[in-house]
From TrEMBL:
Entry superkingdom: Bacteria
Gene Ontology CC annotations of this record: cell outer membrane
Keywords: Cell outer membrane, Membrane, Signal
Signal sequence bounds: 1-24
Xref: InterPro entries: SusD_RagB_dom, TPR-like_helical_dom_sf
Protein family (similarity comment): Belongs to the SusD family.
Taxonomic lineage of the native organism: Bacteria, Pseudomonadati, Bacteroidota, Cytophagia, Cytophagales
RagB/SusD domain span: 401-527
Cellular localisation: Cell outer membrane
Protein known as: RagB/SusD family nutrient uptake outer membrane protein
Length: 558
């Protein structure tokens, strides 16, 4: 009988992580698994390796850690109570979080489980006689490196583990960096070029290696007053970015927001992404998280709405305003906003024409009107008008998003702060939270151009080469009038450009640290402690490893 991890073939049992320190997982010998073909057994071992990715990228795990801790996103107590959660989102934004933060703990456990499942696959796949095994082994090894790369970025450590029954070796700093790099390099030769973006490919590993080398200075000396970006690292960034760009396999998307549509799997700009097609445990939370509780995007589902979660900070918004003043950025840069409906008050639209605006949402919002749990109809069509906070029992308060948002009573109101709808609201999401279809971008081609531009600047101050890369991305968005070309380039402008292109894509914290801006001051945040560049190891993990003296040491300042 083959020893397998059951996946989408048959879900008879949950695979539980035994320990956050030894990274062991139960591998089940199921009688019902007899009779599986070698192909089914191989598929059943690689699928769990990827299965944690949708959970890692939910709104309260990796997204919260990478975005709410920065100047891009802020989540106050909405209405004084909602999203309070014992102050964890306020603490995350103000860099006063602790080792008992449940979202940090959940992210840690998901990454640890991803490593564990990769180790199990690496031990089981070689025993299966299937032609896909060689590729699957490479994918499992590369995914183990990716989960460890996130561990290194967030918590400052990696777990080295080959034998499922042994304890992991813990590495930090240069050793951790070199380990992750070596694992990606070992996986790359046997990866395919034709199975992305939901699976690890050569292009995906090249992109992740470029990102690893770009951040190498941070990982080597986490608390440095000034990071030292080695020329050899920057050369590697350019080398891997060149490989992706010159492969001809990927293309910048003319329509920026199509990158985040619910049918984006075949978008040629995506290099590596969380595959959420066909309801593969996908979620819709990156769409619903920022919307008002009175924004109902789907005529078919009167229960699917937003949750009045995070807004962008005025500081981040002002980067757009200052870049395009005296003009409004919505009329100049197609990445800022896309209007999909023109809705005068009290109008009627067909169900097929209900299509929410995308990007950064400002001002009075219009949408489907709901009374007593049902949408108001006008014949076969739907009444669309000015929205009020009816679901919040404030029927006279308009859903009118304003720039101000903070942790005061006034700043925490349900309509404070401009909101973001970047990922398309899934047309099948009955609750607003479930059944996400959009693949969630991990690496895409625009980021590759911007990484190459940064490496050129950091190595030799090649402003002309960096400017060409940035303007290539800006000029590509031709579905609407593209953003005008920039005339000059430096690191501050490049940081701003990354904020325009990649906002709310789980890269901001890492970018702010690398550019030396994470200790800065922005809305409701003044903490300048460089030791907050990494997060605390969850206290549950420290406690779980207490029987091995010195095995798992807490990060400084926690």
């Amino acid at each position: 009988m083959k020893k397998i991890i059951l996946s989408t073939i048959t879900l008879l049992s949950l695979l539980l992580l035994n320990s956050c320190t030894d990274l062991a997982e139960n591998v089940l010998d199921e009688a019902s698994a007899t009779g599986l073909t070698d192909k089914q057994a191989a598929d059943g071992n690689i699928a769990p390796v990827y299965a944690r990715l949708p959970d890692v990228f939910t709104h309260t795990t990796y997204f919260a850690i990478q975005e709410i801790s920065t100047d891009e996103a802020i989540l106050p107590y909405r209405g004084g109570t909602d999203w309070g959660d014992n102050g964890i989102y306020i603490a995350l934004h103000q860099h006063t979080h602790t080792s008992t933060d449940p979202n940090l703990r959940n992210t840690w456990l998901l990454l640890a489980q991803g490593i564990s499942r990769s180790v199990t696959a690496l031990n089981t796949l070689p025993t299966i006689n299937d032609p896909n095994t060689k590729t699957y082994v490479a994918e499992a090894r590369g995914m183990r490196a990716y989960y460890n790369m996130l561990m290194l970025d967030l918590f400052g450590i990696v777990f080295v583990k080959d034998d499922p029954q042994s304890n992991s070796q813990i590495l930090r700093g240069e050793q951790a960096l070199e380990y992750v790099k070596s694992e990606f390099l070992a996986a790359e030769p046997n990866l395919l070029t034709t199975v992305g973006p939901g699976r690890l490919t050569k292009g995906a590993v090249w992109g992740l290696l470029a990102r690893l080398h770009l951040n190498a200075a941070v990982y080597r000396d986490r608390y440095a007053a000034q990071f030292t970006f080695k020329p050899e690292d920057m050369n590697k960034v350019v080398e891997y970015c060149d490989k992706i760009i010159n492969s001809g396999q990927y293309q910048l998307s003319p329509d920026y927001f199509s990158l985040f549509n619910d049918n984006n799997h075949d978008n040629k700009e995506l290099i590596f992404a969380v595959d959420q097609r066909a309801e593969l445990n996908g979620h819709n939370r990156l769409a619903y998280f920022s919307l008002s509780g009175d924004q109902f995007p789907l005529p078919a589902f009167p229960a699917a709405n937003g949750t009045d979660g995070p807004a962008i900070t005025p500081d981040y918004y002002r980067t757009w305003v200052n870049a395009y003043a005296p003009n409004d950025p919505a009329g100049i840069d197609p990445r800022f906003y896309r209007q999909n409906m023109t809705i005068p008050a009290d109008s009627c639209v067909a169900a097929s024409d209900v299509n929410m605006n995308r990007g950064i949402l400002r001002g009075q919002q219009y949408g489907l009107l709901r009374v007593n749990g049902a949408f108001v109809r006008c014949g076969n069509n739907y009444r669309v008008g000015k929205l009020f906070n009816v679901t919040r029992n404030r029927p006279t308060l308009p859903v009118n998003f304003i720039e101000q948002v903070d942790f005061t009573v006034a700043g925490s109101n349900y309509s404070t702060g401009y909101r973001v709808l970047k990922y398309e609201f899934s047309k099948k999401s009955q609750s607003g939270r479930n059944l996400g279809d959009a693949d969630i971008s991990i690496v895409r081609l625009a980021d590759v151009y911007l990484m190459r531009a940064e490496a050129k600047l950091r190595k030799s101050n090649d402003a002309a080469g960096a400017l060409a890369d940035v303007n290539t991305v800006r000029a590509a968005r031709t579905a609407l009038k593209p953003a005008p070309a920039l005339a000059s380039m430096n690191l501050d402008l490049l940081f701003r450009e990354r904020g325009f292109e990649l906002y709310w894509e789980c890269l901001r914290r890492s970018d702010m640290i690398r550019f030396g801006k994470y200790e800065g001051t922005w809305t409701e945040k003044t903490n300048s402690d460089p030791q907050k560049r990494i997060f605390p190891i969850p206290q549950t993990a420290i406690d779980g490893a207490s029987n091995i003296p010195g095995y798992l040491a807490q990060n400084p300042s926690y």
